[in-house]
Design brief:
This protein has helices spanning 2-15, 29-45, 74-78, 130-140, 149-162, 173-183, 189-197, 201-213, 228-233, 238-242, 244-247, 280-284, 302-322; strands at residues 18-22, 50-53, 81-85, 103-108, 120-123, 215-216, 222-226, 256-262, 268-274, 289-290, 294-299. The chain is α/β, with parallel strands linked by helices.
Length: 327
């Protein structure tokens, strides 16, 4: 079935003179890698086409991958094929003009919810990243598409970041085969991992603060509230604040860890991560979704945040009572 969908997507791309590619809000490595990686792949394959990557926000952390293109006119959108990558639902699309396009294609690896969008959707929740899907798209049509080192770098970056450096359960043998295909273009992985891993000294001070102030629910959910004053004290960027979740990931007995991040506009971003336990359904109850063990949500008061935390604690309690062998 997926081969037929991929073929239909390729035919739609071939017929389009203008293509606009977008992704989800608050983009991560997979969102930027898949949108720009697909654009680089298509520009090399179809140099006569007008191909643009247009989003409404960006990432300072991943600025080394290059900027988006400026939004074209509304008339341009009305004449374009619009492709949205790495985005589970319409409300998360980072493009205020996407609905103007006469045809929208969705390429995504999140668990589908009831908010379907797109005239054509290729969704594989079992994939570790959307970039893995784009790499597979190239592999399916090597005679029609041209893989450049630029495209390979963008796609490999998304695969690396969204798979936890190839450690998450969603990583398969095919993930590594596709990563190897990208590496064969001659990628400079030393420079890439330096850009992804090197940190300012202040971030280590913040990490120490996190370990001193993290809290636990009665059943072992690790969590931290990253409020406005904390963000100001440590001069945290949006990416820095979001990275808080990774500091809580290796605490023995804490199979669920949460970071609540004040957005400064009345909303609070919630990052949910887990080991063994599925948190995706919990996230969907709070204006979010994602993957079984890596999801995002949004709450609109600290009281609602406490309610979500209580549900996470109950979820972990039930898991521990009904399962053996958890660490």
């Amino acid at each position: 079935m997926n081969e037929a969908i991929k073929k239909e997507i390729l035919e739609a791309i071939k017929k389009a003179d203008k293509i606009v590619i977008s992704r989800h809000l608050r983009p991560d490595g997979d969102a930027i890698g898949s949108s720009r990686g697909l654009a680089a792949l298509l520009r090399a394959s179809f140099p006569e086409k007008d191909i643009r990557v247009c989003g409404d926000d960006s990432s300072d952390y991943l600025a080394f991958l290059g900027p988006d293109d400026p939004h074209p006119s509304e008339a341009h959108y009305r004449e374009s094929l619009l492709i949205v990558t790495d985005t589970g639902n319409e409300g998360r699309i980072s493009n205020q003009y996407f609905s103007l396009a006469p045809r929208v294609i969705k390429i995504d690896h999140h668990i589908p919810d009831q908010d379907h969008f797109g005239h054509l959707a290729w969704v594989e929740p079992e994939r570790s990243s959307c970039c893995e899907m784009i790499a597979d798209f190239y592999r399916s049509f090597p005679n029609d598409l041209k893989l450049t080192r630029e495209a390979a770098l963008l796609l490999y970056t998304g695969m690396v970041t969204d798979s936890g450096r190839f450690r998450f359960p969603s990583v398969s043998g095919d993930t590594l085969r596709l990563a190897g295909m990208l590496l064969d273009t001659g990628l400079d992985t030393e420079s890439l991992f330096a850009r992804l891993g090197l940190r300012e000294a202040d971030s280590f001070r913040y990490e120490a603060y996190v370990y001193e102030h993290m809290k636990f629910t009665p059943n072992g959910v690790a969590y931290l509230f990253v409020d406005g004053p904390m963000q100001q004290r440590f001069s945290l960027s949006r990416e820095d604040a979001s990275e808080t979740i990774s500091y809580l990931s290796e605490i023995k007995g804490s199979l669920i860890w949460l970071a609540f991040i004040d957005n400064g506009d009345g909303s609070i971003r919630v990052r949910l991560r887990s080991r063994f336990v599925t948190v995706q359904e919990l996230a969907t109850r709070y204006h979010g979704g994602g993957h079984d063990r890596a999801s995002g949500a949004t709450v609109y008061s600290w009281e609602e945040a406490e309610q979500l935390l209580a549900e996470a604690d109950e979820l972990l309690k039930n898991y521990k009572e009904n399962h053996e062998g958890w660490l």
